[in-house]
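User: Hi! I have a protein structure encoded as tokens and I'd like to know what sequence might fold into it. I'm fairly new to this, so please keep things simple.
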């Protein structure tokens, strides 16, 4: 019923030629094999056009990793949702913990980004997740719930239906420490319950991805859980072979 999704988040990795090579390898790895798993590549801004040309017509989705909270104008260095759309993106990662942590991304700013992304018809991949400290204090459900409420609850059900949510415990990102399948499942079920309290049945159709040291060796166990609809993959998305192997883990 829900779309299975494996999305790569390349972060600030690869030069343009390296990214082109990686995209070609992903494409070569899946070519000719129809699959019910939606693949998305989350690439740096500089790579969007070139990677877009390579994956054009393949069914692979193209995501940016951020967008501006303003529509256009004198905001040096920013990239708007409409620019992303015009460059060929269909998706945009919003609220990644690295942006929240290092670039002062607030819920308020994310509300603006989300609205602009949706106005342009971009599908947001909206990230939530708690820190280790918050989990150890037993606050993880509350923290994630408020991230969902403060931002996604500004949408109407029609728009909410197209949002992809990614649960990424901060302590599991790039650390090699994966949440256990049980920990991930219970948080995903909680997120879906929170979404259902606002959007009703729409929540049943929303894909919720797990992210945080997801790799070929643990993807199968995670994806087997009822509320885990795929993954947002950082490190392992930089190797085409690993990325494809994760996509085959359902
Ligand atoms: P990781 O990153 O797979 O390298 O832990 C995931 C993410 O931050 O999206």
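Assistant: Happy to help. Inverse folding works backwards from shape to sequence: for each of the 250 positions I chose a residue that suits the local structure. Here it is:
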């Amino acid at each position: 019923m829900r779309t299975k999704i494996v999305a790569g988040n390349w972060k600030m990795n690869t030069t343009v030629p390296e990214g082109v090579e990686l995209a070609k390898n992903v494409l070569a790895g899946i070519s000719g094999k129809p699959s019910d798993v939606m693949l998305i590549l989350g690439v740096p801004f500089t790579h969007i056009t070139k990677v877009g040309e390579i994956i054009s017509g393949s069914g692979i989705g193209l995501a940016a990793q951020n967008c501006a909270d303003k529509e256009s104008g004198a905001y040096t260095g920013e990239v708007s949702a409409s620019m992303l759309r015009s460059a060929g993106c269909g998706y945009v990662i919003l609220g990644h913990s690295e942006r929240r942590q290092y670039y002062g991304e607030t819920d308020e700013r994310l509300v603006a980004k989300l609205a602009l992304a949706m106005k342009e018809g971009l599908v947001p991949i909206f990230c939530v997740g708690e820190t280790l400290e918050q989990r150890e204090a037993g606050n993880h459900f509350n923290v994630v719930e408020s991230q969902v409420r403060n931002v996604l609850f500004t949408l109407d059900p029609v728009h909410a239906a197209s949002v992809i949510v990614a649960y990424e415990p901060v302590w599991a990102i790039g650390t090699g420490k994966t949440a256990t399948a049980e920990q991930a499942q219970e948080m995903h079920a909680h997120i879906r319950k929170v979404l259902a309290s606002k959007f009703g049945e729409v929540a049943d159709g929303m894909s919720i991805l797990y992210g945080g040291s997801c790799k070929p060796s643990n993807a199968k166990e995670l994806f087997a859980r009822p509320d885990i609809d795929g993954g947002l993959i950082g490190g392992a998305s930089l190797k085409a072979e690993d990325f494809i192997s994760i996509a085959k883990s359902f």
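A useful reference point when you look it over: Residues 9, 168, 173-174, 211-214, 232-236 surround 2-phosphoglycolic acid (CB under 6 Å). Feel free to ask if any position seems puzzling.
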